[in-house]
Amino acid sequence: MKFNSKAEEKYYYERVAPEADFLEWYANEDLPQYEKPSVTVDNVMLCYDKEAQQLKMLLIKRIANPFRNCWALPGGFVDKQEATTATCLRETREETGIELTKDAIYEIGSFSQPNRDPRGWTITISYLALLPTMPTATAGDDAKEAQWFDVSLQGEQLLLSLNEQKMTIDLTSTKSDKTPLAFDHEAIIRSGFKKLFLMEKPPHLETLFGKTHSLEVLKNKLKK
């Protein structure tokens, strides 16, 4: 079929042609005009150590550049034709050895600042995982280590600690606090806790903190 202009061609395929013809035309003609970002997932994993009566967060130490030897959230690139929930489960398993189910993860949101990844334009979909027990973490794939950090709250400050290593995240801030975390994972963790505090009935709350669904009780349990 011949057209007198690109505008006429575009009009035909978008508003007249069958969808199958449109999709074939779009892939060959229109799609290459748009740059495509890489897509990743990141997972804020929380559990409760009943013996120590301590909330924990799982972090990995990256084995390779960028941010080699920095602490980071488990996560990675979405494979072709893979849903981001499936990526979250797969990357968590590959980097920490922990098997999660879809019921254990909750989407936090997307993070799309153009310079968030020094490798190039990358958009990440972040998740929050809430576990009723503390599974053993075993580092693998891109992870040099996988460790459960203690989590506590002091006012609006979120404290992460592992032996002598300590990180502080201001839950009210919109800027980086220059923590030793990779990428924009500080902002993702901040958003994850905000989502947790906004949940009407966070999963496993009764199991972890007794027979109550009060977020105030949850916050008080985190404070030291």
Automatic annotation (TrEMBL):
Gene Ontology molecular function terms on file: hydrolase activity
The entry's keywords: Hydrolase
Annotated Nudix hydrolase domain residues: 37-173
Upper classification of the organism: Bacteria, Bacillati, Bacillota, Bacilli, Lactobacillales
Domain of life: Bacteria
Protein name: NUDIX hydrolase
